[in-house]
UniProtKB/TrEMBL annotation:
Transmembrane regions listed in the UniProt entry: 102-123, 129-146, 158-180, 192-212, 286-308, 328-349, 356-375, 395-416, 428-449, 461-480
Keyword check for Transport: yes
Family: Belongs to the major facilitator superfamily. Sugar transporter (TC 2.A.1.1) family.
Topology class, membrane: Multi-pass membrane protein
Protein name as annotated: General substrate transporter
Claim: Iron is one of the keywords in the record: no
Domain of life: Eukaryota
UniProt-listed Pfam families: Sugar_tr
Gene3D superfamilies per UniProt: MFS general substrate transporter like domains
Organism phylogeny: Eukaryota, Fungi, Dikarya, Ascomycota, Pezizomycotina
Organism: Aspergillus cavernicola
InterPro entries per the UniProt record, alphabetical: MFS_dom, MFS_sugar_transport-like, MFS_Sugar_Transporters, MFS_trans_sf, Sugar/inositol_transpt
Primary location recorded for the protein, binned into one broad class: membrane
Length: 513
């Protein structure tokens, strides 16, 4: 454990490497701010007035108001699902770095249009989808880039920084909305400022990206070996002829060349996808990741995040300003425990234990929230206005859920999807999984308000609890531990029947960097 911490500090003290990681990790800002800052800005009076979302204007048609609000909230997610698929081709054609820059430009242009759509509902929906294309592409290329520059021992740390930045921005977004609600008049300038703020850090990262290199694994896959070796040396802060660089580069090159020998013809994305289904080893990896993405989204994770202010109010928090502060606290809890996950748990407990522990906490939280909403919460006809002990426990359960989500399936699918595939099929496999992630997230965000109505609130939590229970069984049996295993060794973990995967082990090579 002590050596692991020292290794992390050693890698993080290399200024150029740290600069590369932090710059690319800013690709998580669009997704994080949409879940925090933008989703909260929809509740500002200035936004409601401009886009006709005031409840007083829809007294005869509450369903239409709910649909209008859900469309505005969720259409960015729909665009992101398409963006993840589009990035599939761009990542191999343009490279990881150029794809990252292009995605930033698309997202920024969409964000600018949505901030100044001035009450035009159709233009806003277009801008949400267009900006979502860039945000979705960034969720593919950012973790992919980070995984391809990281050494095996600290790959979990490096890729998880993506989520640390995302959640820091998510929490900040709620507090920005709170500050705007109490310090600014409810004019269009209020929500425009709130929604435009993420353009500043992403713009700075975009400019800084012109000082960054392409990933060494991508360069090797394109037969640019000399460039790949030089980049690897620069990232590791070691001489190009050092034994450590030689060993890591040799393993990287051998894996790439072996896969080319198996498929000598230039591999298209469709050919690569067919290979993921025809090769039993690859097929197990692909469908495990798809199952992980499905379970992650349908446990309610992003549905709760997008509507957390309303969820706190249902649990007993009163007042819009108070619910925004509570939502910010929710974001901080997610950030703190994601940092704990990133800096210790992911490479100490491992991916598998974290996923199962997280699902267990989510399950417990959902069970109590279902009980509270169905039985313990005072009804509208009751003389009792609140059941404070039960309400406090419900609020605590929301935070317990945040802990479970943060140390488990909030981050692990991003990391798992970038590390379990060889270079040639990594892009197509991860892009398809992220597209599924976004389509499922769109569905969850879109239907969550309707689930609360049609399932009487408690039924939604019961549904999510059942998914958590199923996830514990499926991932408990099917998910192997990948901690410390080099990307080039992952195939050994997936040999044999899938139902023995839980006990698969690979000893990291001595001296593996």
């Amino acid at each position: 454990m002590r050596r692991s911490v020292l290794d992390k500090l050693r890698w993080s003290t290399r200024p150029f490497y740290a600069f590369v990681v932090l710059t690319i990790a800013c690709g998580s800002i669009p997704k994080g701010y949409d879940e925090g800052g933008y989703s909260a800005s929809v509740r500002l009076d200035s936004f409601k007035t401009d886009f006709n979302l005031l409840s007083s204007n829809w007294t005869q048609n509450r369903t239409e108001l709910a649909n209008r609000t859900a469309n505005i909230t969720s259409f960015n997610v729909l665009g992101a699902a398409l963006g993840a698929l589009i990035s599939l081709d761009l990542n191999d054609r343009l490279g990881r770095l150029r794809s990252w820059r292009l995605a930033c430009v698309v997202w920024a242009s969409g964000t600018f249009i949505q901030a100044f759509s001035s009450g035009i509902y159709g233009l806003l929906l277009f801008a949400r989808i267009w900006g979502g294309l860039g945000a979705g592409a960034l969720t593919v290329v950012t973790p992919l880039y980070l995984s391809e520059i990281a050494p095996a021992r600290t790959r979990g740390l490096v890729v998880s920084i993506y989520m640390v930045v995302l959640l820091a921005v998510l929490a900040l977004g709620f507090f920005i909305n709170y500050a705007a609600s109490i310090h600014m008049p409810p004019t269009p300038t209020q929500y425009r400022l709130v929604q435009s703020i993420p353009l500043i850090p992403v713009g700075a990262a975009f400019i800084a990206s012109f000082a960054l290199p392409e990933t060494p694994r991508y360069l090797v896959s394109q037969h640019r070996d000399d460039e790949g070796r030089n980049v690897l040396s620069r990232l590791r802060g070691k001489d190009i002829s050092s034994p450590e660089i030689e060993d890591e580069f040799r393993l990287m090159t051998i894996q790439s060349r072996l896969k080319e020998a198996e498929t000598p013809i230039s591999t298209s994305n469709w050919t690569a996808f067919k290979e993921t289904q025809s090769n039993s080893n690859y097929r197990q990896r692909f469908w495990l990741l798809m199952a992980m993405q499905t379970i992650a989204q349908w446990t309610g994770g992003n549905g709760i995040t997008y509507y957390v202010s309303s969820i706190f109010e249902a649990a007993g928090v009163t007042g819009n300003a108070t619910s925004l502060v509570s939502s910010g606290a929710y974001g901080i809890v997610k950030l703190v425990f994601t940092m704990a996950f990133t800096w210790g748990l992911i490479d100490y407990l491992g991916r598998r234990r974290c996923a199962l522990l997280g699902l267990s906490l989510q399950l417990a939280a959902h069970i109590y929230l279902a009980s509270y909403m169905g039985v313990l919460r005072p009804s509208s006809s009751s003389n009792e206005t609140t059941n404070k002990p039960a309400s406090d426990a419900a609020i605590a359960s929301i935070f317990i859920y945040a802990v479970g989500w943060s140390i488990g399936l909030c981050t692990i699918p991003y990391l798992y999807g970038t590390e379990i595939f060889p270079t040639r099929i990594r892009n197509v496999s991860y892009a398809v999984s992220m597209s599924a992630h976004w389509f499922f997230q769109f569905a969850v965000v879109r239907v969550t308000p309707n689930m609360f109505v049609s399932l009487h609130t408690w039924g939604a939590y019961l549904f999510w609890a059942i998914i958590c229970f199923i996830g514990l069984i499926v991932l408990g049996v099917w998910m192997p531990e990948t901690k410390g295993v080099a990307i080039e060794q992952m195939g050994e973990l997936f040999e044999g029947p899938w139902y023995f995967r839980w006990r698969a082990r690979i000893q990291p090579k001595e001296g593996d960097s």
